Amino acid sequence: MKKITSTEQGKAGRCSGGGIMRSIRKKLILAIVCCSLFTAVLIGAISMVNSARSAGADALTQMQLTGQNRAEEINATIQKIAQSVDTLSEVAMSNFDYASFVQNKDYADEYTAQVQQTVVDFANHTDGAVTVYLRYNPQYSNSTSGVFAQRQTVDAELECLTPTDFSMYEEGDVEHVGWYYLPVQAGKAIWMSPYMNENVNIYMISYVVPLYADDGTSIGVVGMDIDFSQITDQVDATVIYDTGYAFVTDDAANIMYHKDASEGTALSDLDGSLSDSAQFLADDSKQGQTFDYTYQGVKKKLAYFNLDNGMKLVLTAPAAEVYTEAYRLMNMIVVAMFIAFVLSIVIGIVIGTGLTKPIRQLTAMIEQTSQLDFSPTEDGAKLRRQKDEIGVMANEIHLMRKKLRDMMSSLQQTEDVLSANTDNLNNIMTQNSAYAEDNSAASQELAAGMQETSAGTTSIVENVGVMRDSSQNIYHLAEDGEKNSGQIQSRAAEMEKLSRESRDKTDEMYAVMREKTDLAVEQSKSVKKINELTENIKEISSQTNLLALNANIEAARAGDAGKGFAVVASEIGALATQTLDTAATIDEIVGEVNSAVTNMTECLTTIMEFLENTVLGDYENFTKVGAQYHEDADTFQQVMVETKQAVEALEEHIGQITATVDNINTMVEQSADGINGIAEKSGKTQELVTDGYDKLQECKKSVAVIREFVAQFHL
Asked: Which tens digit of pLDDT belongs to each residue from 550-599?
């Protein structure tokens, strides 16, 4: 059987320990990287989905808000025009005598002279008014009775002209007199479809209010033709993302204004693919919602808002532009995921190296011990100063190495004594052999030889006693080592218990943090109440703005006496606008607060995942190290048991040497009985010396075994 040397043992230990440590380091780094990668991918995927969904929703909301705000602005213009005409109708009829009107066809002309300037003044105070007219029922008036004032250009002054002659047209001639008969037939104020006034070359839209007597008899109409650019300029100013724009249709999805299409064109006639869009626009319940459609191969988004003049403000934009922010966020998330992955690798290497370095140093100490090298090291001193489980293990290993070093030093001293005693005994045996061969020379020489033999055996007895005492010391040291290994086992078990308790405490902390995180998220929902308050503020501001507009109209009616009131009304209108801006700012702040709450929730979630996936795993690794430490203590205990067995074998050889020396003493005593038995005794003595020499050789072998055993240790 080949004996394994200490060098070979060291190499084996180093290979095994190094392999284990490299494996732990790689596994730890791989675990950290995998956990980080999984977390990054999971969070990234969730973030990409949520961000895309949120960004898409925000983009659509932005589109909807843009359309809603623009529709409100256009409606404000429409309402201002309608209020001006409505007020004019009331003023124009304030002093009208219906009885005279019915009985005298010339009364209309007389009354016209009284109100003509008032009618013109109202038009002058109405933005965009190109034409203003007050016409009477031709049944009770002359065919050209009434007021008709028109601008020849947008910037020109209103010029009173001869009204349209009703006698020249049939009642059903919508093109020429529809502006009069359509409102009368409808029985309410109406907005006429936009049309091009060829006389002044202005695209106009008309608002006409029918006039009635108390008994319901038609008196006539009052109306204004407004430059349609008052509305179209606001439509053209509507910018949606990069290339998105707005246009205007009627209830039947016929185009009233479009930058690239003719007025009056049906939306479905532009492209067959727009028929679904036309149906969407015809459904009033879809106002403010979005609709997906494809036009000339481009996917687009569409939304509409009803205007107070019966038209619809339509917004359209390419879907790619709508989701540009979503795509940008997704790209940012992908880049962030890549950076997180790279950082996780770096962090995993740093953490893995940092955590395994003490374990590597501890393993080196154990490998050094397995090589029977008990010399102190600088790394061992550093490990013993650590205030954790590694420090406890290092201190215990240090104590074990110290006791083994002391025990081997004592065993080495015993080996020196045994070696010296065996040399002395060897010399004595040589001398005894010579005496036995020469005993025939003379009885005196034999007697002297017997005396020397007696003295030599006495010395052997004394040396054998020393050897027995030394072996007892080694035996007791082995017992102490066995006891110490038991204590090391207890401490390893305690370390494993502490690791398990730490893991339990970490689990409790994780549960508490989870509960507090859920509570914080629930409390953050109260921010939504601010949105309700801002909506109320917006509603109040809109009503205030409307009141300010009515006040301006009343101030205009009051003339110079109402100028001061007009200033106050304007300030109220400005205050309402400022309130709307403030409400919008509150909405932005609420959005930022919601975003901050969301980020806080994500950070808390990341921390708890780190506790669950990393910290708890580290405590599990410490538990495994404690178990390995317990196993190493078992191995050392086995070495101590083998040492005790070797000492017991040595004592057996010492007993044999003692028996041999006792026999020699017996023979010496017998030799003293008489000279006559010298020859016989000499032969027996020779045999005993030979036997003692054999026993001495066995003792030398035992000493050599002890010497070889001690030589393996580096003290």
From this structure: 777 877 777 776 667 677 667 777 776 776 776 677 677 667 656 755 76
Q: What is the pLDDT of residues 298-323, one digit of tens each?
A: 899 999 999 999 999 999 999 888 77
Residue after which a domain boundary falls, among 304, 338, 357: 357
Distance CA 405, CA 489 (A): 20
Torsion-angle region of 288 (φ positive above 0: left; ψ -120 to 50: alpha; else: beta):
left
CATH number at residue 220: 3.30.450.20
Question: Is residue 445 situated within a structural domain?
Answer: yes
pLDDT (0 to 100) of residue 341:
72
String of DSSP letters for 63-113:
HHHHHHHHHHHHHHHHHHHHHHHHHHHHHHTTT--HHHHHH-TTHHHHHHH
CATH number of 539's domain: 1.10.287.950
In this prediction the pTM is 0.45
* Cα-trace Rg, the chain: 57
Q: Kindly report the number of other CB atoms within 10 A of residue 568's CB atom.
A: 13
Q: Is residue 77 situated within a structural domain?
A: no
Q: What pLDDT shows up at residue 29?
A: 74
Return phi, psi of residue 697, to 5°: -65, -40
Has residue 69 got a pLDDT over 70? yes
Residues 496 and 379 in one domain: yes
Residues 395 and 424 in one domain: yes
One domain, residues 225 and 129: yes
How many domains does the structure of the chain reveal? 5
Give the rounded percent of residues in the chain with a pLDDT score beyond 70: 59
Pair 161, 199: CB distance under 8 Å: no
Q: Distance between CA 73 and CA 10 in Å, rounded?
A: 89
- Name the H helices within 202-323: 229-236, 267-270, 275-282, 319-322
CA distance 72 to 287: 13
Residues 425 and 479 in one domain: yes
Give every CB contact of residue 575 below 8 A, 6+ residues apart in sequence: 544
pLDDT at 6 > cutoff 50? no
Give the helix/strand (H/E) hosting 662.
helix 616-671
Q: Residue 473's pLDDT band (boundaries 50, 70, 90)?
A: low
Q: What is the pLDDT, as a whole number, of residue 702?
A: 67
Domain of residue 435: give its range: 360-511+637-711
**Domain for residue 516, yes or no?**
no
Examine the domain organization and report whether 114 and 45 are in the same domain: no
Other residues' Cβ atoms within 10 Å of the Cβ of residue 74:
25
Please name the helix (run of DSSP H) or strand (run of DSSP E) that holds residue 251, with its range, or none.
none
Confidence (pLDDT) at 91: 93
Q: Output the pLDDT for position 13.
A: 45
As a whole number of angstroms, the distance between CA 479 and CA 474 comes to: 9
CB atoms within 10 A of CB 582: 14
Q: What is the pLDDT of residue 614?
A: 62
Torsion of CA 643, 645, 650, 651, to 10 degrees: 120
Same domain, 505 and 575: no
